What does this fold into?
Amino acid sequence: MKQINVIANNTLESRLISMASKNGVNGYTSMQAQGSGLSGLQSGISDGDSNIFFLFILTDAQAETFLVDLKKVIDKGHRLKVLITDIEILL
It folds into this structure.
């Protein structure tokens, strides 16, 4: 299993949700994110100045195809921060 965290501009929210759904991901957690990094301060004052943080839990196969789609978004010039972690889930 993989946990993929994505930090992206708020304007990409529906696109990322659609991509996850296309890859068989049925659930996610999202929240507004503020902070500073290479693109400067993201204060949340406007959509262009707002980030969203996603947490996705995926199988290894889902993660593989989802990462290909995320790379396409990055290749189009969008800034995404993608963090990938191997996980185990206790039930």
Observations:
- The two ends are 14 Å apart (CA to CA).
- The chain has a mean pLDDT of 89.
